[in-house]
Structures
1.
Amino acid sequence: MIIEYNPKYDNQIKYLLEELQQYLTDIDKEGYNIVGEDYKEKYFEKP
């Protein structure tokens, strides 16, 4: 099921994205991908 984006889901989205990024870094044998401590907090910041 696909649901429309709603800001109330921000924390769940951030958690899911952090988990995905962590998985990608775990399988990255060359070490190109890293996840910083503030990844989850900074994800939705506007540049």
2.
Amino acid sequence: MTKEITEYLQKEGLEAEFKRLNDDRSTIYSFNDDNHLLQYLKAATGQQSSSGIQAPTEKKISSAKLKQGHEFAQDVRFATLYQPSSQQISETAPGAHNIDEKMMPPSGKDHYWAKMPVGSGNSYFLYQHQFNPPTTDTIPLTFGNPDAPSLIMNQGGLNLGMHIQPTKKKKYKKPIKRSEATYGGLPTVPGQVRGHAFALAQNQISTDDDESTMDTDPRTYTAESDSTQSNGGTSSWRYNQIENAAIKSDLPFTQINHDISVGAMGIAYPSTIFYRRSTPTGYDDLSTDNTGTTNYRDTNKVRPKNVGQQAYQSTMGRTAARYNPYPTPSIHKPGKDFTDAKRHDYPGYMSPPPTPFLSDVEDTEMTVKGSPIPGAKVKLGDGKTGIVTKIIKRYPDQDKTKCLVKIPTETDLPDFGL
């Protein structure tokens, strides 16, 4: 409701009665026109006689239908704010869609992850903000075993974070010695280390390019603080406590680079690095300083005698994670509550219609042109707009997709951002 309408209703003493009708989510009140509504409100507030004033048409909404409408409202709001990115997880790495939701790497600034129905399962898709579009796309990079790949998210040439999955299959990696490493052609910088995504023994091959590996692709690197410096740092500690631990356990870890700046090497230089290690019983979260200012080395006064310096650095990381928790990325799902606190600041944004108006919806199977993904808006032949809710089958040779599309059935329902 616009500011002008609110002020008018307040001036005429009609706001309370209007809100009563509007807030009654179990009933749709239909009026012939604006004047009919005004006359009814004036009669209901005692400002004039109700004689000759027709009551509105009422349509009761069941609790089940109301729930359906609420869920669709979330999908409408998400589709209004976010639409599919041109950059998606490669089809050469189908196993990326099996990554634990709580271990997904970040989507990037003005991007959002969603997990949507495809065939008999669910897949991850990347979406971009429509009212505040990103200046650069986030690009998902996949390496290693296609059925259980490593996923590295890069935006503007910077490694935002990554889900690293060890592989035992030789055909998916090219182990190298340190003397053979190319470091992606990156320059050296005093006090920092060109941090590989994973140990050189796990130098995984790109699922899209057999000639590219984690070592040769500069987009996979993170500038790490040098563990040989006076305070200690990230590099050797990460190799021993995170990378080798993952190889020995054959369990993945996720790294999130936080508060990123462009370092002297031209790659991501995060001030803090978060880690989430998968364990047989759950997760092991750590938060570590990557600026070289935290004294990880001189811990003799507090470190138990039987605990090594790097092991104690891990203990410090776990303690830090309790006060500075691991930032699990948000993942949207169909019908899941979704909002954006700044949505009303975006020029042109329109909220979804009231829930009752979305309660009568249909999931219609249809074949549409192109390769839309769930959450995409599609224009229909009758001029309406629907939202793709599930991909059933793609026909790439015909450039068509069979899918389910959710369509509001109220014939007079405006687009409301759709």
3.
Amino acid sequence: MRRFTTLEELRLARLPPTVNAAVENALTKEIDLGGTDYDPDNTGSVWLIEPQDSDSSITEKLGSPFAELLFEKVHHHPEQKLFIAYLVRNNSRCDTLIIPDSDWLPEAWAVSLISQT
């Protein structure tokens, strides 16, 4: 999983265009909502799920295996081959997960996401 907290981090990542656009949109919203008080450790971050991620890496960063994550909302964008999921951690923190809808995405994870759309 790759965490993005600044637009500079995103610029340096050199992501594919559709993934970059999704991360930029989510990150811009986080920064705008936080204003001068933007604190990604307390208000939320943008995370990109990548091919090497596993339940152990998800659990390490988010506290539970992927299939056990209960998202507030999941959007599927088939034309961009992306899922965008919102994970509310507490009253003041919501993390956004950008999840490519790719062949490498474990079937159980895709089923979990689709069931929450």
4.
Amino acid sequence: MEAAEESDLARYEHPGTTDADFRALFWKARLSHRRAGNKTSAAAPAHQDSLRFARAHGLADAEALLSALVKTYLDENEACLNLLVSLRDKTRFQGEIKFVEALARHGQGNHDQAILCYHAALASPGFSAIREAWRNIGILQFEKDECPEALASFHRALGQPGHDDEAFVWLQLGYLHSNQGDPATALDCFQKASDSADCSVHAWPELGQLYLASGDYPSAIKAYQIAIDHPDAAGKGHLWACLGAAQSAEGNFEASIAALKQALRFPADVDPGETWHNLGRRYADMSLHRDAIDCYRRALNEPDYQHHALTWMTLAEAYKAIGREDLEEICWRNCSSAYDLEYPDELEPET
């Protein structure tokens, strides 16, 4: 992809260049920065193409615009807005200027100003990122809990011209319908998004969650396996833990144990105490009570673990299963004490 972007400049270097030529390069640069996220830089090939073109054709305003653009993806929003001050009264590239300002305003948490900027971009001559603007307006409205307005904006984005894959709109629609308690529609939206190279990394975990909640465990397992295997997968520990939950729900405890062990390799992605506890439960499901006891004790030793009462209870059950009634009794006492601390306003659990 980068090599293709690097070679695109040549076809724009010809007599009679128009602003549309710079805009085409600008949106390629923006796409490159979006894909790289906060790891991007002005050295990205697509950015350099745009910059060389701007300099070659004396587009000083375009240089400032490009500098502002990259800062939005580096979370340098105040610096971005400061750069855009010099472009406030310019008429050239106003759509792109307002789009970049909207990104920065959103980054600062100023949703209303960002929405106004997107509408200004949409009203600007030559602005071509119609789909992106309406989608981003929808995201802002969704974040403001204005769900009917967000739904309308996302649907306005569909079928419009733009530079990002339309699957990003389907992805946002999936989040919205899931949030609104409409899993069937959410599932359909995430399935549409999963066909996109850019969106599949986000769509497959959501599909896994929806399939798991609906009791379609084979589909959930497949979805989580695809998500784990994605080269850009984030939060792999969480994905492994979810896969383990789906396999456990299907009754494949041995596979679940293997998945939970993988999850523990990524302690930053999971609650280690909870994962050790769940691993213990899976060993108990297979009547491997001594292995279960080891896992429960590891859970209790995790400094941030919050569910000691539950684990003391399962530990008591495991000691009972191996005939250690003396240790079982100690665990029940510890369970009662932990429960009083964790749930001071509730009755003690039945034993």
